[in-house]
Amino acid sequence: MEEKELEKQDALENTDAENTDSEEAVLEETNLEEDTAPEDNAVEDAESGEKKGKKKSLLGKEKKSNKLQEKVDELEDRVKRQMAEFDNFRKRSEKEKAAMFETGAKSVIEKILPVVDNFERGLAGLSEEEMKQPFAEGMNMVYKQLITELEKLEVKPIEAVGCEFNPELHNAVMQVASEEYASGIVAQELQKGYTYRDSVVRHSMVAVVE
Fold first, then answer.
1. Residues 166-175, buried b or exposed e (16+ Cβ, 10 A)?
2. What is the value of pTM for the model shown?
3. What is the signed CA dihedral for 53, 55, 57, 60, rounded to 10 degrees?
4. Which residue from 54, 61, 82, 143 has the highest number of Cβ atoms inside 10 Å of its Cβ?
5. How far apart are CA 112 and CA 71, in angstroms?
6. Phi, psi values for residue 161, rounded to 5°
């Protein structure tokens, strides 16, 4: 009997020792978990801070990029406006230059036309025999050369006789009766008119059928 009681006591003591060991193991694991938890939290905090820092850095770079883009757009707009203004100025200058040249050319042509008129009157007053004389032939050659040079400058005579009266081209100084032409038609040309390019240098002086 005593031996059995001793065995029971030994068994209880062993059980208590095992329980104590298991409790200590649980406590150690708990302490380990508690010890490692702050480290994990610290890592998470560091990662979160790093992400926030990256976000701030990206936002800062994006703001700078937007400001630079706005500045670039502003400069491009200013350059485009200046180029448009310069192009308008260039076109306006070219038009003014062309107008000044045309005005000057008209002035010179107007002074030459009376010379042409005198050539034509002089040659028209010569007979066929006189036209064969060297002097008359030379005058005719000079006249033809003058007309050729005027044609190169786009100076052309205005058609008059047989054409309908046009106040933009003709200057009616008298009315005449005519069996050949209808009313409103130019019957005679008293002085030849000329155009320079698309503008009239001198109107034709004409007589119009009644």
1. eeebbeeeee
2. 0.57
3. -140
4. 143
5. 61
6. -60, 125
Dihedral angle sign, alpha carbons of residues 14, 15, 20, 26: positive
Q: Residues in the chain, how many?
A: 210
Walk across the sheet containing 170-176 and list its strands.
170-176, 204-209, 186-191
The pLDDT tens digits of the residues spanning 83-134 come to 999 889 888 888 888 888 888 888 899 999 999 999 999 998 888 888 889 9
Retrieve residue 185's tokens.
């038609």
CB atoms within 10 A of CB 207: 20
Q: Is 171 a residue whose pLDDT tops 50?
A: yes
Which phi and psi (to 5°) does residue 179 adopt? -90, -20
What would the pLDDT profile of 19-37 be if each residue is shown by its tens digit?
455 555 544 555 545 444 4
- When the pLDDT of each residue in the chain is averaged and rounded to a whole number, the result is 79
Using a 10 angstrom Cβ sphere, with 0-12 exposed, 13-18 middle and 19 or more buried, the burial of residue 118 is exposed
Taking each helix axis from N to C end, the angle separating 2-124 and 134-152, rounded to the nearest 10 degrees, works out to 160
Question: Is the distance from CB of 200 to CB of 164 less than 8 angstroms?
Answer: no
pLDDT of 63 over the 90 cut: no
Comparing CA positions, the residue from 159, 158, 160, 208 lying closest to residue 185 is 208
How many other C-beta atoms can be found within 10 angstroms of the C-beta atom of residue 187? 20
DSSP letters spanning 7-43: HHHHHHHHHHHHHHHHHHHHHHHHHHHHHHHHHHHHH
